[in-house]
Amino acid sequence: MTATRSGTRSGTRASVRSRTERSSRTERASRTAAGRDKRAPQRSTAASRRVAAAPLRRGPSPENVVLVTVALLCCLGLVMVYSASSVTAVRTMGHSWAFVARQAMWLVVGLGAGYAVSKVPMHVWRDRVALPLMLLTVGALGYVGLGVLTSKLVGVALPFVMTVNGATRWVGVGSMQFQPSDLAKPALILWLATLLSQRGRDLRTWVGLRPVLVWTGITCGLVVLGDDLGTTMLLGTVALAMVFMAGAPIRKVLTIGGAAVGAGVLAVVGLESFRVARILAFLEPDRYRQGVGWQLWQSQIGLASGGVFGTGPGLARSKWGYLPEAHTDFILAVIGEELGLVGSLAVLGLFIGFMAAGCSIAMHARSRFSRLVAFGITTWIGVQALINIGVTVGTLPTKGITLPFVSYGGSSLLMSLIGVGILVAVAREGGARRSRPARRT
Question: At residue 64, what are phi and psi to the nearest 5 degrees?
């Protein structure tokens, strides 16, 4: 009996212990599962926060906007160069494709050069290219300036220095001509960006600004010596904008700008009398329309004749000898006549889109040097376009500056496409690209 009871008690205790162990294991398992359930929402919330924090990419990238706007302007340029130059080409060269074929050749060369420079890292431009390119530019400009002086003082022209329409700005042989002042635009931008981005340079003092002012003054002086005051003003504007963006005090920027304006007035009044005549023609177009103001007068007539939608492609009357050099500086007048106000506003919109994308690339650039280069190139293309448009519509005196990517001119088109290539290199450096949102797995 006693043994039986003890055995029963021991069995009861064992079963109780087993049930207790099973219940404890069940509780631990439930606690573990509950902890997992509590951590799971936290992990999912953290993952969702990371996805939400990733910058979203809305719309096209600035790089693509630049490429698309430039492509559209270049295509429009080929069409309008053919339309504006066909009559002159038949009269002077015997067939209507003479000018547009040469423009297409320069476009192919420019596209190849722009693609090549877009692959060059920005530190290479800063450390290896900027100074040699600037020295080459100063040498070429100095040679052209020397040619101008020798032809005026001695009456002897230097080899390879060419005069076109009374202006001595080109070097070359025969139909192969190059304008060194076009090379000065990217060269000066790269070199000024190098100087302005150097460590330890205090732009609050004149000592820190001295190299920038000296190089800009030398370049602008040599360009104006070659009878190109318009490009001189453009280079001065770009340099002033870069100095301002680099962080120079506003007082010094205004002082430099005032000195530049004073020098420009002296150049207009003292160097060549035809510049004064152009300003008088701008102020009184009716009085001088039969002389120096003829081109400006015919440009405004062409724009007014186009109306809202234009006369149609190829139907402009201004190119039949009324508007001299219609395919170069005043090509916008032909665009306005054939495509109307709509076409002119479309061209203006493309340049505004280019400038907005260029500023975006500059703001997202990775280094100070890249940011200044991008801003300088954007200012160069944008200001040059605005000057050309202002001259065509009669709000600025005649300058002799082409419309980027559209006007006829090999060296202008080549250097503009190289500038676009450098701008694309800044974008591809990583500063202007926005990372895509992470995918949830």
Answer: -70, -35
Cα distance from N-terminal residue to C-terminal residue, the chain: 69
* 268 lies in the same domain as 342: yes
Give the DSSP per-residue string, 170-188.
EEEETTEEE-HHHHHHHHH
Dist. CA 251–CA 193, nearest whole Å: 21
CA separation for the pair 79, 83 (Å, rounded): 6
pLDDT in tens, 312-353: 888 888 888 788 878 888 999 999 999 999 999 999 999 999
Closest by CA position to 214, among listed 243, 234, 186: 243
Residue 213 lies in a domain: yes
So what's the pLDDT on residue 419?
Answer: 97
CA distance 245 to 272: 34
Residues 389 and 274 in one domain: yes
Q: What pLDDT score was predicted for residue 94?
A: 82
**Residues 134 and 273 both lie in one domain:** yes
Choose the weakest-confidence range: 52-56, 63-67, 216-220, 323-327.
52-56
Half-sphere exposure in the Cβ direction for 329 (13 Å, CA): 22
- Could you tell me how many residues make up the chain? 441
Domain that holds residue 46: 1-51
Close Cβ partners of 315 (under 8 Å, ≥ 6 residues apart): 338
Within this chain, do residues 2 and 102 fall inside the same structural domain, yes or no? no
Residue 70 lies inside a defined structural domain of this protein: yes
Instruction: Name residue 164's beta-bridge partners.
Output: 167
Residues 85, 46 share a domain: no
* Rounded Cα gap, residues 274 and 292, in angstroms: 8
One domain, residues 23 and 75:
no
Identify whether the C-beta of residue 239 lies closer than 8 Å to the C-beta of residue 212.
yes
Q: Which residue has the tokens 């202007």?
A: 432
Output the pTM of the full model: 0.83
Q: Supply the mean pLDDT for the chain.
A: 83
Instruction: Find the angle CA(407)-CA(411)-CA(417) to the nearest 5 degrees.
Output: 80
Asked if 17 and 76 sit in the same domain, the reply is no
Task: List all residues 6 or more positions away from 226 whose beta carbon is below 8 Å from its beta carbon.
Answer: 141, 144, 145, 148, 167, 168, 169, 180, 181
Q: Which residue do the tokens 């530190």 mark? A: 123
436, part of any domain? no
Residues 212 and 294 both lie in one domain: yes
Domain count across the chain: 2
Other Cβ atoms less than 10 A from the Cβ of 415: the count is: 24
Centroid of chain to Cα 248:
22
* d(C-alpha 394, C-alpha 304), whole Å: 12
